[in-house]
Amino acid sequence: MDRPVQLSSFANSFLPIHMLPIMPPRGGFSSVTPRTAAVDASGTKIVTCSQPRVGCMQIRYFKNWDASVSLISKIEGGYTVPMQVPASWGCSTSSFDALSAGSMSLASFSAQLEDANATRTWFLRVLGLVFTWLTVYCCFQPIAAAADIVGDCLAYIPCVGEFMEDLLEGMVDTLLCMVSCGVGCSCGLLVIGIVWLFMRPLIGGGLLLVCVVLGICAFAVAHQHKANKDISDQSVQLKEMYDNDSP
């Protein structure tokens, strides 16, 4: 593990820290020598000013104190070289080697590499879904722009104009955010599910099933809304017919 090197044993080769200037010279330091620097009280820094100031310099040395390393590689001619990883589905031929400080068993080293890879993989997955969300949201921006234009017109209404403008734009932005999140994340999960269907069928099939269920739910909600609208229209038509037939 890297940590600062203790420089206390070299302090006598430098100036006492109280003899250093408080401020850096005009034009800055041209060089750092034992006659222009000192070891600070912590014994881990070489400083050029008695107090930390803008323009002053601090030098620290670090050392890797591990006495052994763990390595996964190929031995060739007495040297370590990367291993050739054969091509697989979706991946081309590549080379691989790994080095880590400390002595570890192969199982522990492999588990450490898998954990690091899993963290990176999940980060990229979440980032990809966020980007699909933002992409769909950008496609809906003309709607938000139209709402902004209408809001500008509402702002001219005395007393309540600005309130109505903020209300309209806030409702439209919230609705677009929710819709774009649903559409974008569904598309992202669909693509992930299709890829995983070839690599790990159980996981890919589960993701595709989730996408299908979400699609069915969305269709049912839209169909129910249309049915309610049709019933409302029929009620209005019946009322108009009744009013027309009444003496």
Automatic annotation (TrEMBL):
It is found in: Endomembrane system; Endoplasmic reticulum membrane; Nucleus envelope. InterPro entries: TMEM43_fam. Its main location: membrane. It is a multi-pass membrane protein. It comes from the Eukaryota. Keywords: Endoplasmic reticulum, Membrane, Nucleus, Transmembrane, Transmembrane helix. One of its GO terms (cellular component) is endoplasmic reticulum membrane. GO terms for biological process: lipid metabolic process; nuclear membrane organization. The chain crosses the membrane at residues 174-196, 202-222. Belongs to the TMEM43 family. This is Transmembrane protein. It comes from Symbiodinium necroappetens.
